[in-house]
Amino acid sequence: MNRETDARRGNFLKSTLAIAICGFALLTVTACATAPKSDKPATEASEMKDLEINSPAPLVSATLDDGTTLELATLYAKGPLLVYFYPKSGTPGCTAQACNLRDNFEELTNHGLQVIGVSRDDEKAQTGFREKQKLPFHLVADNNNVLGNAFGVPRTLGLVYARQSFLIVDGKIAWIDRHAKPGTQAQDALAALKALSK
Fold first, then answer.
1. What is the DSSP string of 63-132?
2. What is the pLDDT of residues 33-74, one digit of tens each?
3. Does domain 49-196 have CATH number 3.40.30.10?
4. Which of 22, 32, 94, 99 is the catalytic position?
5. Catalytic site residue 94?
6. Residue 52 near residue 153 (C-beta atoms within 8 A)
7. Which of 51, 62, 83, 140 could be joined to 55 by an S-S link, Cβ 3.0–4.6 Å?
8. What's the whole-model pTM score?
């Protein structure tokens, strides 16, 4: 009798477990089938380019500090271009970097080198920074990450760009500085440009 009772209990538990497993599987399949598809684009990391020397320079548009839109291809056609990314307008390191380029701007232009700075600050912040420091070049308000993703520039804590610089010559990436130095940005870029002509 006890054996028969134990057998019935065992069969009952097996049946209950099988039903539970089937139910869970059915719920999982249903959930996967009916889950809404995300309208969000792929992650920012996958959208970012991985530029190397001689890679074609990104053909994207940029919003400048004065609110106008600029096609980078327009600048590429005019001659060598330094695109430098920096964390945040008005901070000590970024001010030093911008002022280094400002103070050496005449020499840069004598060698045909154009300059634009890029950060995730908005247009108002970029305008204020440019006016306060009397910068002779434009700043890009890249708060939508278009240029950052196109050039493959990482963001610290997902908030501010790393300090990186790119030299574009004849529409191609000619030099990349992944750890740009604020105090010698102009000198480093100019040295890279001169090295190309040797």
1. EBTTS-EEEHHHHHHHS-EEEEE-S-TTSHHHHHHHHHHHHTHHHHHHTT-EEEEEES--HHHHHHHHHH
2. 333 333 333 333 336 678 999 999 999 999 999 999 999 999
3. yes
4. 94
5. yes
6. no
7. 51
8. 0.76
